[in-house]
Design brief:
Number of helices: 13
CATH architecture of one domain: 3-Layer(aba) Sandwich
Radius of gyration: 21 Å
Distance between the termini: 45 Å
Number of strands: 24
Bound molecules: adenosine monophosphate, glycine
Helix content: 25-40%
Amino acid sequence: MRILVVGKGGREHALVRALAESPGNPELFSFPGSDAIHEIAKPVEADGLESLVAWMKANAIDLCVAGEESYLVKGEGLANLCASNGIPCWGPPKQSAMLEASKEFAKDFLVRNQIPTARATATDSLEEAFAAIAGEYPTVLKFDGLAAGKGVAVCPDEASARAFLDEVFTQRRFGPGRVLVEQCLTGPEVSVFAAIVDDSYQIFTPARDYKRAGDGDLGPNTGGMGAVASRNLVPRPVLERIEREIVLPTVEGLRRDGLPYRGFLYFGLMLTPSGPQVIEYNCRFGDPECQAVMPLVKGDLASYCLAGAKGELRPDFISFDDGWSVCVILASAGYPESSRSGDVITGLGNTGDFRVYHAGTRRNDDGDWETHGGRVLAVVSGGATRQEAVSKAHAAADLIHFDGLQRRRDVGILNFD
Ligand code: AMP
Ligand code: GLY
C-alpha cells in the first residue's frame, strides 16, 4: 500500500509513525512533511494541490491521508480533487470541511440539527457585535474563518471585547469576515474524535489538551502545550450521552444535509452543568491530542483508513489500549507570540518507554536537530494509570534540552486532583 500524508507538524509525525507501524509495511510519502517526517515518509515535490494530486495519480498512491485542515478547503479542496482523480482520501471534501472553516456554518448546522451548543449571533460590525453582546460579560467572540487558533477570544469585559473587535473589524487582522458573538459556557473541556464513514462512525479515545502557555492554565493561548488521553477520561454515562446527543445527530445531520464525510471529525466539547455542548468541530485529528491518542491505537491503522476512504468502516481493524497516555509539548523561546529557530536540541538519542514526535525541528548543516518553529517536540508516554503516564512522560521530557525550552509541568495533573 502506498500512502501519502498531507501536513508537516507533530500530529502528522504521529500519524505517519502509526501508519508505518501498521502490518503490511505501507510505503509512505509526505507533503510537505518535515525533516523528521521525511525519515519515514519520502518527500513529494509539488507546488499546489493540483500538482500534488497529479503526482499521486502518476505514482499510484492508494490512499491520501489529510492531516492538516487547510488543504481540505484550499482551491477545489484536497478530498474533492482526490475524488475526481479516483484516489481514496481519508479526510472530508471542501463542502463538509466548512464545519471547521466557518464557525457560522458550523453553528447553523448545530442549531438545525438540535445539537447542544452555545447560543450565538453572527455580526458584521463593531456596533452589531456590541448590540449582540448586550452588556453580558463574559462573552465569547469568534472570527468566522480559519485563523490559526487565534480567532477566538473569551472576553471578561467590554475593554477586552473592544480590543478583539478592533483587530477583526478595524485592522482586519484575519482578513474579511464576520464575528460570532457566543454565550460563554463553563465546565471541563474534552476532545472527542470519531472516524466517520458516511453513516457509520467509531469513537476514538477521548483526550483533553492544555491550551494555555503556562502552568495552572495561565498565560496566553497556544496551539496546545500538552494532552492527556484515556478511555477513562470521561465517565461512561457521559460518553454515552455525548454519543447520543452529539455524535449520532452530527452523523445523521451530515447525511441529511448531503455533506459527504470520510475521515476523522473532532468534537471540541464543554461538559457544562446542563450537559455536554459543542464548542467547535475540526475536520481532522487534534494537535497535540493525536500525539497522545495514536500510541493507544493498536492494529492496522493503514488498512482502517484505506477501507474508510473507500466507504467501509472497519472497527475490527483497530483496538484501543485501556491505559492512559500523556503528551508534553516542548516549545521554543518566545512561543506563542513568536518562536525561535536554530537552538540545537540534545537528548534525542535517549530511548525508553516513550515516544518523541517532531513538530518544529530541522536538521542543521552538522546533521544535528535544531528548533524550527514554536512547538518543537511532543514527548509521549503511557501507563496503566494516569499517575504512571504522567511521571513517565515528564521524566522523558526531562531528558531533552535546548536553549529557551518552555514546557508545562502540570500536563496530565491539572484538572484531575
Ligand atoms: P476554539 O478556537 O473554537 O477551539 O476556541 C478556543 C477556546 O475558547 C476553547 O477551547 C474554549 O476554551 C474557549 N471557548 C470557545 N467557545 C467558548 C464558549 N462558548 N464558552 C466558553 N469558552 C469557549
Ligand atoms: N488541540 C486543538 C486543536 O487541534 O485544534
